[in-house]
Design a protein that fits this description.
Blueprint (H helix, E strand, L loop, with lengths): L7 E3 L7 E2 L10 E3 L1 H12 L4 H8 L3 H21 L3 E3 L4 E3 L5 H4 L22 E9 L2 E2 L8 E8 L2 E9 L5 H10 L4 E3 L5 H9 L3 E3 L6 H10 L24 H4 L8
Parallel strand pairs: 1-5, 3-4, 6-10, 10-11
Antiparallel strand pairs: 2-4, 6-7, 6-8, 8-9
Helix pairs in contact: 1-3, 2-3, 5-6
């Protein structure tokens, strides 16, 4: 399992934690982490370069680039799909005036010492994990999954889980579907290269080539001992899977070559 990301330094919590479109029906919000919020504030509002932002947040420039692209995609999805936005969670620490010498050039006067209204405590880490799902098991073909089971995790503990229908979304649309659900991590069986690229562009971490019970896989991931295939691949995207009785769901594309 990849090591946890370095804790990112932010100046203070946002003044408002939720935003939504006017006159639209209630929908599942897209989740923007506080470190994503901070990168948007520093780069797009304060006009900092990625190098300056990296120094202020105590992270690498490449990490700033990844966070920035993920945050921009989420904000774009809110605008395009009329989805509410909620700022919550992330891997961060609040400066609180204790590290003022590091960020005074980028903070409005007194910002670092301002009282914090965000109830999320220092070190909180939230995740939203989706699993391709069928009858309690990990469905073995990402592009044909009819359901995901989505788990909300806070501080390494599952606090909510629900099954959501994809409503017929196919390969190309599923990454966007997951992004709309606020998902940041996916567990699945077989998955094609194009879908992997789409997930990467959406900022969604992938654990492919996994089989067995969905709940057990999530528990294993949180414990750091999930067995997965970082080179998972499935080429069964452009032809009928049922041809000759050969189906991804029956043999598990994630565990062997599908050529």
């Amino acid at each position: 399992m990849p090591r946890p990301p370095r804790c990112r330094r932010i100046c203070s919590a946002p003044q408002a934690e939720a935003f939504g479109p006017v006159g639209c029906a209630q929908a599942e919000p897209i989740l923007l982490s506080l470190d994503e919020y901070e990168v948007i504030r520093l780069v797009d509002l304060e006009g900092q370069t990625h190098e300056q932002c990296a120094a202020q947040m105590d992270i690498s420039r490449s990490t700033v680039q990844e966070i920035y692209e993920s945050a921009r995609r989420k904000i774009a999805a809110c605008l395009v799909y009329a989805k509410p936005l909620r700022i919550t969670g992330g891997n961060y620490r609040i400066c609180g005036g204790q590290e003022h010498r590091h960020c005074k050039s980028g903070c409005p006067a007194g910002r670092c010492a301002a009282p914090q209204t965000n109830p999320t405590q220092k070190g909180d880490n939230t995740m939203k994990i989706a699993v391709t799902y069928e009858n309690g098991q990990i469905f073995q073909h990402f592009g044909h999954t009819a359901q995901f089971k989505v788990y909300e995790v806070v501080d390494g503990k599952i606090v909510d889980a629900k099954v959501v229908d994809t409503n017929g979304s196919g390969h190309g649309a599923l990454a966007g579907f997951l992004m709309q659900q606020g998902v940041d991590t996916l567990i699945c069986g077989g998955i094609g290269g194009g879908a992997q690229v789409a997930l990467a562009q959406a900022g969604i971490r992938l654990y492919g080539g996994v089989s067995g019970e969905a709940d057990a896989a999530v528990i294993a991931l949180l414990a750091g001992n999930l067995g997965y295939n970082p080179n998972v691949h499935c080429d069964h995207h452009d032809h009928e899977h049922g041809e000759g009785g050969h189906t991804c769901g029956s043999h598990g594309c994630g565990n062997h070559s599908c050529h």
